[in-house]
Amino acid sequence: HILNERTEAKSDQDYLNYILVNHATIPDRTDYILDHSKPNPLEPLAADIKEQSQLHPDFFAIPCNTAHYFLKELQALTPIP
Fold first, then answer.
1. How confident is the model over 14-52, as pLDDT tens digits?
2. Signal peptide span per the entry (predicted)?
3. Mind giving me the DSSP string for the chain?
4. 41-72 burial, b if ≥16 CB within 10 A, otherwise e?
């Protein structure tokens, strides 16, 4: 994994702590952005944020460009940046 490859670690304990969520069944973001009659992906995205917030991470990283369309709503669900 690229995070591990770019982390200077001499032992297991030197690596970053992270959790990766790949929720492939979320409805297509682009479909919804272009046509609001399509399934809204916000509900499952929000459920993921709420669920992962219980783990008290330092931050969230959302690599999906189209998921950023919902960033304001998602950020309102958690104090975690």
1. 998 888 899 999 999 999 999 999 999 999 999 999 999
2. none
3. -HHHHTS--SSGGGSPP------TTSPPHHHHHH-TTSPPTHHHHHHHHHHHHTT--S------TGGGGGHHHHHTT-S--
4. bbeebbebbeeeeeeeeeebeeeeeebebbee
